[in-house]
Structures are given as structure tokens and as C-alpha cells.
Hints:
About 25% of the residues lie in helices and about 25% in strands. The protein is α+β, with helices and mostly antiparallel strands.
Amino acid sequence: MISRRTFTLAAVGALVAAGLASTPPVATAASRRTVPRTAATWTGHSQRVGPADTAATASFRVYLAPRGGLAALQQDVAALSDPSSPSYRHFLTAAQYHARYDASTSAVSAVTSWLQGNRLRVTSVEPHRRYLSVRGSVASVQRALGVSLDRYRRHGQTVRANDRPVSVPAAVAPYVSTVTGLDTTPHRITHPAQSSLPFPDGFRNARPCSTDYGDTLASTQEDGKTPLPAFEGRTLPYAVCGYTGPQLRTAYEGNSALTGTGVTVAITDAYAAPTIASDAKTYAKRHDDGSYSSGQLEQVLPDHFTDESLCGATGWWGEETLDVESVHAMAPDANIRYYASASCFDTDFLATLARVVDEDQASLVSNSWSGVEVNETPDVTAAYEQIFLQGAVQGIGFMFSSGDDGDQVAGGQGPQVAYPASDPYATAVGGTADAIDKNGFVFQTGWGTHKWSLSSDGTSWVDNGFLYGAGGGLSTLFGRPSYQKRVVPRAFGTTRAVPDVGLDADPTTGFLVGQTQRFGHHDRYDEYRIGGTSLASPMFAGLTALTQQQAGGRLGFLNPLIYKKAATFTDIAGSPPDRGNVRIDFANGVDDSDGFLYTVRTFDEDSSLHTAPGWDNVTGVGSPNSSWLTAVPPH
Length: 635
């Protein structure tokens, strides 16, 4: 193994000529180049406290550009992902990718020498030379990167950030992709269903409920005697008990014999459920989802976990359970490889995704986590995107949940979309509400819910307003990608539009999940209904595993194919025949000892977002059906 010192010495002669030796002169503005996407975008809206302490220590990462440049890599991805290109699906292995695109040792040497010349210390080099980890004084950082670091009050904390982009000497600019870590705002990733996941405290759905959609009308309460009021003049059905694999496969896959054989689906979340293997096995046996063969479900874990309390680790266990069981429900013979992040912070998720593409075992990656764009920094999105591009070259497609809070206005942060779902190189999965009986779909509509509570006298329903719905809208970070330009109407602006597709996400028409939970002082397996785009993303990954099986090989970055085949998706245009369903819950979440709560949960009322003919900001181009399974001709 070549040491970093060897890297440095190899390039000293060239760097002296470039004015980058150990005591460099102050570079003029003309001799420097700005590094795009490296300025904090929020500083103008936060209170500036004052300049940072120049003697304080700063740690950051310098990401290295792929060999040949980012633009060339993006062009290669476009050719590999376009069904009309002669290069379509001519993917590389991970080893071939690294040999062709990894930054060269001379690039590492050049950047290292420049940093050392500015009294900064390179503490490590990422194994595939993605980035250099760097430490030094704030004064040295400001000198090297051409920025001022200031202190701000943000989210109740004092943080440090730069309010203008990083610049670097022209001689090293071709080697630098982005710089992360100058903004010290802690950024936790959340998964959309986190607040409603019951583990470790037990949760059960009350009865009655509908086994097939609409088979149990809510004319009376659970005692069968006390009447429930009609809703807008109609008696609505009780919510479903929770769909299982056979019901979802009938609706989405028809009579297909495909099962995902030979395909590996990766799932990324934080932490790891200790009972996932036994829970998934029990669930599959109970609900006719087939058994798990040896090695079919694997957990890939980091060396250790951190920040468990801060991140709510046990909530992530439920997310893993939902993701694993819903992938298996759609593709019973696909391999599932669960990758656990060490925490819920960006740095650990970046490491997890890098591990996925470097191991190159999976070709579809479902991610049921996201953050709102306003909390993202351009440097971090650039780091994510480089991993997505590597995956695309290797034939790996990434799916991200679009979020569960509609346009995000209810959260007080203004209309926006979720990231990484909004990245142009990710597939954003939005949400539908699905009415399914033994024959398949009764109807599909958009997921968006207003909650109406039963009045105190039990004679009417009281509107509590918007509750939740599929995330969508327009990105403020990315322009309109070419694959969307002929499909997304101009009325939706000119930036990246979210989502791309939509599948069942409404908890009212949700999935039955099985998980070990704590009831009193005992942990035991039980089942409950759940939804969210945390369900829609792994469902789409499982469904697409069948598409890949039929095609006889990897599909890669999916969006160009999705938009080329948009006319074959089921268009979700709203106006459902039922306004909603009645939901009954135990007041204490476990049993009837404290009574029951009755609510109406409506359909197709998603904040300011609306389903409509063609592409819409709730369901994208629509919902995949059995036509998606044959979207790509076999090799």
C-alpha cells in the first residue's frame, strides 16, 4: 500500500511550478476557481453571531472528482440509462468502475500537497479515493478555501458555516468535486413513518376492519348495536385490516409467474432490528409469502452504532421490518440485503450507500428515509450524487420515499420536496390509496388524508384538517432533467418534479406488518397495519425485481425508462368512488380497556398537491402494473 507521504513527494516538482509548494503565496482571484455547490444556502435567513474563532479546529472532507470529470461521468450514465442508446444496459462491474473513474494517485498527491502547504493535515484517504479527510485551524481553512467561517444561531444551536462558495487554486480545481463539513449544522435523516412506528411499545389495530376492501361497512360501532353517523350522506367501509403479499401481488402483478429469482434488493436504514430474521420468517409463513431460503435475507452491519438515543434507534427497527417484509411480499424469491447505517446522520448514510455500490451485490436499492430540501447543503447533495452516478454505471437503481407530509407546509417550512428523493439520479416514489379485493384493484386514488373525528355525542364527524399525504412538488436545488421534459407539463415549472411513480402508501389501505414488540414486560411477535411512502418504495423495488428477472439482467438508473414507458403506467386521476374509510383504534393502542376512537380518513386530499390526468405531484406518471414487468425486452 502506498502511503500518503509517497503521494505527496511524487508531485512536489509539478506543484512548485504551480505555486503550490509548502509556503504558497496568496493566490489572486484570477488564479482560483470556484467549487460549485459549496456555499451554505441558509445563512441569509439566520442570525449571524460573529466570526469563528480562528484558532479553533475545523474538520472537513475534500471530495475528489471522478477521473475524466463529472460531466463525462454524467454523459456515460445518460448513455447507459437511455433505452434508445446503443450503450443501454452495458454496465460495468464495481472493479471496472473504480479502474476507470476513481481519482488518480496523482490527483490525491496534488490536493494533499496543496492542503499541507496551507498548514492543513490530511488525516485519511477514503479507500477508493472518493475524499480526503482534513483537519486544521479555522485560519488555515479560510486561507486555503478562500472563505470566511462565521457563527450563526440556527435551530436553537450555534453553528459554523461559510456563506460563499469555496474556491481553490486553478492547478487543483480539476481534482476537487466538492467540500463538505464546513457547515457544522447537525443534520439528522428521518424516515417518514418514524413517528408512527410502535416498536418497542406494542400497538394493535382494533376491530372491525375489512379483509378485502369494502367488505365491512361502518354502519355501527364495534358492539354491532351503536350506530355510526353517515359521512356526507354515505355509509363508508371500515379501513382494511392490512393487505398481505397475495393481495398486493394479485393487484400489481396480475397472474405473473415471476418471483424475483436471481435478483438482489438492497435496503438501507439506520441500526438493525435484532429479531428481523425470525419476524420475517413468521410473517411469511402466516401470510403465504413463501419461506426464506438460506442466505436469502442478510444484514450487513457497521463496526458499531452511534447516537442511538438521539436518532431513536428502535423506531428504525420497525422501518427495517416494514421494508424487508414488503419487498418479500412483492418478490418472494428475491434476495434481500439489508445495510444498516451506524447512525441517522448524512456521513453514515453516505458511507452505507458507498458500501452498497462498492460491494455491488444488489441492483435495486430501496431507501425509506429523507430530509426536506431546506435542510440540505449543496455540498452534501453533491456527495450523494457521486454515489448515485457510480451505481448507475454499475446497473444499480436507487429508490427513495417522497415523504409523508405532502408539500411540507404543515411543518412550517414552506412548500418543498424531500431529498434525496428529489435528486435527478434517484427515483422518487410517491403514494396512492389502493382499494383491493380478491380480484385485484377496485380503484386507486392519490394518498392525501383529512382526519374527521367522531363528535362527543356520536352523531356527526368533526374535521381536524390535513393529517398526512404523499410528498411531492418542485425542487429548489435541481433543474428539470431531460427525461421529464416531454412528460411533466410546463404548468409544473422548470425544475426537477417529484415524484416519479406512486404505489400504495395510505395507512388506511396499508400493509399488515409483523414485528416483535413489547407488551407490558414481555416482548412478542404481533401484527399491525402501516403505510407511508416507506411502504411504497420497497414495494416498487420488489415489483421491479420481477421486471429485472424478466429482462434477464440489471436495469440501472430507472427514470429514463419510467418516463419513456409513462403511457403504460396506471394513470391516477383522483375522484375516488368512496370519500374515505372509517378507522377504529384502541384509545390506549393495545386493547379495549380504555375504549375506542373512531375517525374518518379521507382519500385524495393531499395538502396543496393534487392528482390529475398525466403526471401529477402525488403519484408521478402513475402506478406500475403488470405492464411494468415486461417494460424491458429480455437479453
